[in-house]
Design a protein that fits this description.
- With 86 residues, the chain is of the alpha/beta class.
- It has one domain: Rossmann fold.
- The chain has a 4-stranded parallel sheet with strand order 3-2-1-4, sandwiched between helices.
- Strand 2, helix 2 and strand 3 form a beta-alpha-beta unit.
- The longest helix has 14 residues.
- The N and C termini lie far apart (29 Å).
């Protein structure tokens, strides 16, 4: 079974992907301090637990993004990764 995972770096990126994440019950990896408390509660109520990146990744940092994707692929099998386009 394949999972969908959203890799999000910014508040705008989360806002754009929010509906799809909730609808799909997708996995979410996101920069720290992007979500506000209401958004965290909304995700929790939808049984979605975001994984906060260990450190802030600058939007558009290709090397940082590729390292995160490698990490995801090592931890989660059969995953479709959707990356916030910047």
């Amino acid at each position: 079974m394949s999972h969908t995972l959203y890799l999000i770096f910014t508040e705008d990126g989360f806002s754009d992907a929010r509906t799809a994440i909730l609808k799909e019950k997708a996995l979410l990896w996101i920069n720290p301090n992007v979500l506000n408390e209401a958004q965290k509660i909304e995700l929790e109520n939808a049984h979605i637990t975001p994984k906060f990146l260990d450190q802030w990744v600058k939007p558009g940092d290709e090397k940082g993004t590729l390292n995160i994707i490698k990490d995801i692929e090592q931890q989660i099998k059969n995953v479709d990764i959707l990356v916030e386009y910047l």
